[in-house]
Amino acid sequence: MAFTLPQLPYAFNALEPHIDALTMEIHSQRHHKAYVDNLNKAIDGHADLQKLDIASLLRNIKNVPEGIRQAVINNGGGHANHALFWEIMGPNGGGEPTGVIGDAIKAAFGDFAKMKDTVKANGGSQFGSGWSWVVYNPASGKLEAIKRPNQDSPLMDGLVPVLGVDVWEHAYYLKYQNKRPDYIDAWWNTVNWKAVEEKLAAAKAGK
Ligand code: MN
Question: Is the pTM for the entire model greater than 0.90?
Answer without folding.
Answer: yes
